[in-house]
Recover the amino acids of this structure.
């Protein structure tokens, strides 16, 4: 459906993207995830045509659109700020693209009404000015405006970042439902890993103008292919050399030259002994209470380790309490050490 | 062939045409005329026919030309002090301190926005002149007083102090309203007393605005025209205008002297504006907070201080309002009452606005009739109406032209950083040149049949001068328009343009349908401010001094001069008062439309429409014309 081949983008001296390769399939919800300044928005803007790559090609349905003008690409965009036109009513905002295409008045009205129904905007809301709507309603207008021209692809640039936490979660679900209903190929840009993991069919993790890993949420989370990815997604413990040595002494086969990580939820507290796991005792240093789960920091002989435990309402440990942590070598993710290391 | 085809694309041709036009206008109407003025200084002819490049310079140091410069400087320095004191006072009294009746006070302090220039100066003369209304009233109460108190330096200072606070009311008011009230509360919470808060927390945030205002006021004082001319004070500008109209037969090289004085003004302006822009580039104390709290007016706790603040506020209010109220009252008075400078409460008339009347008076040989229609209203007097019409058309055209040029230019400036900067400086260039220099340069340079690029037409000749005035008006208003409209463009989110392009709109459509509607309120505001200023301007039309370009202000001045002479214009003062009332209404209406109605966003407009609809429905229901529900 969309294929980026060796895209390189330069802003004067600065290389923003180097040899990016992405293949998004028809109907897929594809997310570009990464910290700010990593090149995810630049990639999106290259697909939409706002940025011309110095080398590489952009294909949509097999057609090379690298040099096609922005307005001929038929790619819908939901902008970070929504970019709704403040001098127009909601209806005029949605109809803008259709008017540019010089469609008949009745056809425009019919299409606007149809899309408004689908994104749940009332007739009364259509008559309002954009500034009279709430954040969530504005977002629906932005989506309707992007979809009404029936684009082949829709791109969303951090569309939830302007909303408060509760609305964000609520709209995230609506967004997913809408995408499923419309069945449209979607490219989604975000720096929020939770958003990426819950929404996406596949994720491309960006770092410093390159892609570190492309995969399903599960692949990216549980089988991070690089040290950056495993650090960026989810919370993680880096194991110290001493810990690795002790684990190897009890039968694990971890390469001491590499960097080793284990996710917080893979470090159970006071669990039943399982085959092959290495156990260590320590005392609870601090406790963060989240409701559904609890995060402990435990001081052991070798290093401080963090652990996330589901809140069962029974076994809650106080700071200072002695506990046993178990680490299974199968859950350890290992990477070649970087110069200087992370953490 | 391919490259030629590329060059012939409509976009390219348009761009090339725009570039050519820009070069033509910039060189032809900004650079060449002014360079011509500069060279005039060094090309004075001696009696024997040779040129003497240093004659004017020698004359300057030997004669009394220096006093004009000194007088202007004296006025500028004095004005900076008085206008800032009054300007800061009125803003603090209406926006910062809790003074009773602040809304009414503000209306009074803001009258200078619709009542300025020649109208204001002649209004002051009408009141404070040696036989003015107030002076007469005061002299009757205190027989010993000096009836000539309102003349020369003190009169100019007094008038200009209250005439130049408009900018304070616009910009300083804005700055003070943008103060984050949380900072005031924080200072109080940390133990600072109210006065300390004012000086240590509030004032520092106002300094950038005050600095700009000080420079602008200084330049205003330096380039003052209407007040010194009408009140009789020998500063630079009136002298330039006098010299420009003088001839070699009367005195030594008047044109070269006028040129030298304009260049001196220009040098001062350039130095001051360089300081200002260097200061502005150093950055400002911008508020860092994201959630600003609205300023709450401060009560003055000290009772005595509070009483004094109120007295001071209302004294200023009286000073601002008296001329306005008097002008309105006297515009409905008969010429007899005006002549006698006394209010005749039993006798009101519309004659100063509409209609004509013959004038006659009793002599020892019987009734003497002067020519027909010696008493006439604004809308019945051909001269006054002509001046208003000329000013209206020329100002409206120039104000609109300046806005159009600047909107196109700013759109370009935002798209092309480097080339845009050149364009921006070119448009700001007229700021460096005193208005009078530009007009003087146009008058002398285009008064010839040898300027090839305007088709060898003499632009100063007959009706052509109107075109020249429009160009001068436009050029003079470019820098101000650019600064204001550029600020408005900053408010456009980049993503809006991206969104429009993404939805299939081209550059022109994006400009017309998306960007222009957003900046339109600001553009209209700039148009209104330009129009109001040009409509009442005096110095430019006076410099051109052409009977084909007699502006409203010049008609006003003429009326003052020839009032009652040989039975002419018997009710000139009354008609002037009436025309001032008309101008105030017009300017006020424009400002209301632009700031009051035009500044509402779409949401507010729709909400207002909805409210009106509901009210109408309610009335219809009550009248039984419509079913309830």
């Amino acid at each position: 459906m969309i294929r980026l081949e060796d895209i390189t983008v330069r802003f004067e001296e600065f290389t923003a993207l180097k040899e990016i390769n992405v293949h998004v399939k028809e109907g897929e919800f594809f997310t570009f995830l990464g910290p700010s300044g990593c090149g995810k928005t630049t990639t999106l803007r290259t697909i939409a045509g706002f940025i011309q790559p110095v080398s590489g090609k952009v294909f949509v349905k097999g057609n090379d659109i690298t040099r096609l003008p922005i307005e001929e690409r038929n790619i819908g965009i939901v902008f970070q700020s929504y970019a709704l036109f403040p001098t127009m009513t909601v209806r005029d905002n949605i109809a803008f693209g259709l008017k540019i295409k010089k469609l008949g008045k009745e056809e425009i009205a019919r299409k606007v009404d149809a899309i408004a129904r689908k994104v749940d905007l009332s007739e009364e809301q259509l008559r309002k000015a954009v500034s009279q709507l709430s954040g969530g309603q504005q977002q629906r207008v932005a989506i309707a405006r992007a979809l009404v021209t029936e684009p082949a692809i829709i791109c969303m640039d951090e569309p939830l970042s302007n909303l408060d936490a509760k609305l964000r979660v609520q709209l995230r679900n609506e967004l997913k439902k809408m995408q499923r209903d419309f069945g449209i190929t979607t490219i989604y840009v975000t720096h929020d890993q939770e958003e990426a993991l819950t929404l996406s069919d596949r994720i491309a993790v960006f770092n410093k103008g390159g892609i570190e890993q492309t995969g399903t949420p599960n692949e990216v989370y549980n089988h991070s292919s690089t040290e950056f990815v495993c650090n960026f997604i989810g919370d993680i413990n880096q194991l110290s050399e001493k810990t690795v040595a002790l684990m190897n002494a009890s039968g694990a086969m971890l390469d001491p030259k590499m960097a080793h990580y284990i996710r917080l939820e893979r470090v159970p507290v006071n669990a039943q002994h399982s085959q092959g796991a290495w156990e260590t005792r320590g005392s609870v240093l601090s406790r963060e209470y989240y409701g559904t789960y609890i995060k402990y920091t435990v001081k052991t002989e070798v290093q401080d380790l963090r652990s996330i435990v589901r809140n069962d309402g029974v076994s809650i440990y106080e700071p200072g309490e002695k506990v046993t942590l178990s680490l299974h070598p199968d859950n350890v993710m290992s990477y070649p050490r970087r110069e200087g290391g992370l953490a | 062939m391919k490259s030629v085809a590329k060059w012939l694309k409509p976009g390219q041709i348009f761009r090339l045409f725009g570039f050519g036009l820009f070069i033509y206008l910039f060189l032809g109407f900004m650079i060449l005329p002014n360079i011509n003025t500069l060279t005039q200084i060094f090309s004075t002819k001696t009696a024997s026919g040779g040129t003497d490049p240093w004659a004017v310079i020698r004359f300057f140091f030997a004669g009394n030309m220096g006093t004009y410069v000194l007088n202007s400087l004296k006025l500028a320095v004095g004005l900076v002090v008085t206008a800032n004191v009054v300007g800061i006072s009125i803003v603090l009294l209406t926006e910062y301190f809790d003074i009773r009746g602040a809304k009414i006070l503000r209306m009074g302090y803001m009258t200078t926005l619709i009542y300025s220039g020649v109208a204001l100066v002649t209004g002051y003369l009408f009141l404070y002149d040696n036989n003015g209304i107030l002076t007469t009233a005061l002299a009757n109460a205190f027989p010993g007083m000096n009836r000539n108190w309102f003349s020369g330096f003190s009169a100019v200072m007094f008038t200009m102090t209250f005439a130049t606070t408009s900018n304070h009311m616009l910009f300083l008011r804005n700055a003070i309203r943008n103060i984050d009230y949380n900072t005031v509360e924080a200072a109080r919470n940390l133990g600072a007393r109210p006065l300390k808060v004012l000086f240590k927390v509030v004032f520092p945030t106002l300094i950038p605005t005050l600095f700009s205002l000080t420079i602008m006021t200084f330049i205003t004082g330096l380039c003052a025209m209407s007040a010194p001319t009408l009140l009789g004070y020998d500063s630079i500008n009136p002298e330039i205008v006098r010299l420009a109209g003088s001839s070699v037969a009367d005195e030594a090289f008047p044109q070269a002297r006028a040129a030298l004085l304009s260049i001196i003004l220009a040098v001062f302006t350039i130095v001051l504006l360089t300081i200002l822009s260097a200061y502005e580039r150093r950055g400002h104390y911008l508020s860092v907070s994201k959630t600003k709290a609205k300023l709450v007016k401060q009560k003055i706790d000290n009772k005595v201080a509070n009483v004094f603040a109120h007295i001071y506020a209302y004294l200023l209010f009286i000073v601002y309002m008296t001329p306005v109220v008097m002008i309105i009252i006297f515009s409905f008075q008969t010429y007899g009452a005006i002549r006698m400078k006394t209010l005749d409460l039993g006798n009101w008339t519309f004659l100063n606005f509409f209609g004509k009347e013959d004038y006659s008076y009793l002599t020892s040989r019987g009734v003497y009739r002067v020519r027909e229609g010696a008493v006439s209203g604004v809308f019945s007097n051909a001269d006054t109406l002509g001046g208003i019409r000329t000013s209206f058309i020329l100002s409206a055209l120039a104000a609109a032209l300046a806005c159009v040029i600047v909107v196109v230019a700013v759109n370009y400036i935002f798209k092309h950083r480097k080339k845009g900067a050149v364009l921006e400086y070119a448009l700001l260039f007229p700021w460096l040149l005193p208005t009078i220099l530009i007009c003087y340069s146009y008058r002398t340079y285009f008064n010839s049949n040898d300027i090839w690029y305007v088709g060898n037409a003499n632009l100063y000749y007959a009706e052509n001068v109107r075109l020249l005035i429009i160009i001068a008006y436009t050029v003079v208003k470019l820098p101000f328009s650019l600064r204001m409209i550029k600020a408005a463009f900053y408010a456009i989110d980049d993503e809006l343009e991206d969104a429009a392009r993404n939805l299939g709109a081209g550059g022109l459509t994006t400009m017309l349908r998306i960007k222009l509607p957003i900046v339109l309120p600001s553009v209209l505001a700039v148009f209104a401010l330009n129009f109001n200023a040009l409509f009442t301007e005096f110095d430019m039309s006076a410099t051109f001094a052409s009977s084909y370009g007699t502006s409203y202000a010049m008609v006003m001045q003429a009326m003052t001069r020839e009032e009652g002479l040989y039975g002419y214009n018997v009710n000139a003062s009354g008609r002037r008062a009436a025309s001032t009332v008309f101008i105030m209404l017009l300017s006020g209406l424009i400002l209301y439309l632009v700031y009051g109605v035009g500044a509402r966003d779409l949401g507010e407009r729709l909400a207002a429409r909805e409210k009106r609809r509901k009210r109408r429905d309610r009335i219809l229901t009550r009248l039984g014309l419509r079913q309830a529900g």
Summary: The two ends of chain B are 73 Å apart (CA to CA). The mean pLDDT of chain B is 86. The longest strand of chain B covers residues 360-363. Chain B touches chain A at residues 493, 495-496, 498-506, 509, 513-514, 517-518, 520, 601-603, 605-607 (CB under 8 Å).
